[in-house]
Design brief:
single chain, 78 residues, 0% strand
């Protein structure tokens, strides 16, 4: 099987796909994959194009983490 190098456009498409398809259970691994793709981009201009998706993934991670902690705290109080 021949492996293909991803172009910058391919990397951006993959980050976008991760943003739209991630779930609460996969957010950590999807964010890690997106970060690796972002780091592999050559120029700052290329990375800037992915900013909105990266910020969105980070915000989902925060929101979903906050809900888990809140639920756990509520369970302890009862």
């Amino acid at each position: 099987m021949k492996l293909r190098m991803l172009t910058t456009a391919d990397k951006l498409v993959e980050i976008r796909r991760l943003y739209f398809t991630t779930t609460r259970d996969r957010i950590e691994s999807d964010l890690a994959k997106a970060l690796e793709l972002l780091k592999s981009m050559d120029t700052e201009e290329e990375r800037e194009r992915a900013t909105v998706y990266m910020e969105g993934l980070a915000q989902m991670r925060i929101d979903w983490g906050r809900r888990r902690r809140t639920k756990k705290r509520g369970e302890r109080r009862e």
